Amino acid sequence: MDQGKGSEKKKVMVAIDESESSHYTLEWYLDKLRDSIADSDVIIFTAQPNSDLGYLFASSYGTAPMDLVASIQENKKKVALLLLDKAKDIFAKHGVEAETLTEIGDPKEAICEAVERLNVQLLVVGSHNRGPVQRAFLGSVSNYCVHNAKCPVLVVKKPAV
Q1: CA–CA distance, 22 with 126 (Å, rounded to integer)
Q2: Angle between helices 66-93 and 20-33 (to 10 degrees)
Q3: Distance between CA atoms of 100 and 82, rounded to whole angstroms?
Q4: Is the pLDDT of residue 55 over 60?
C-alpha cells in the first residue's frame, strides 16, 4: 500500500440540527458505524440558518437597532454551540473524539460547501420523514445533499413508531 496516501485519515461529517431525527442519527451512527470509523476524523456540523429579519425591519419602520440584530444572531450562535456541545458529549460517551463546526447559511448549501471545502469522504445526515407535500413546501436537506454533495451521503431515517 502506498504509504503517503494509505495513511491519510478519512473524514466523516455528521450534519445535525435540533430535531429528534438528528439525535437518532447520532446514536445510530455511533451504534452501527463506530468500529468502521475508528480511524476517521469525525466532524459534527450544524448550520445557523440565515435570519429572516424582514419582520424586524417592518415593525421598526425600516430602522431596526443594530444591537437587536446582533443579539438575535448571537442567540442563534449560542443555540448552535450548545447543540454541538451536546453532540460532542454523546460522542465522548461512546469513546469517539470529534471536532465541531458551525456556519451561518442555508443548511443544505452550508453542508455541501463544508463537505467540499473540508474534503469530506462521507456525509451522514438524518431524515425528518416528511411526506411529499411537506417536502414540496419545506424542501429536503437530505435530498439536496444526496444530489449535490461532493462525496457519498448516508441518510439515516428514524423508524416510524
Answers
A1: 5
A2: 30
A3: 11
A4: no
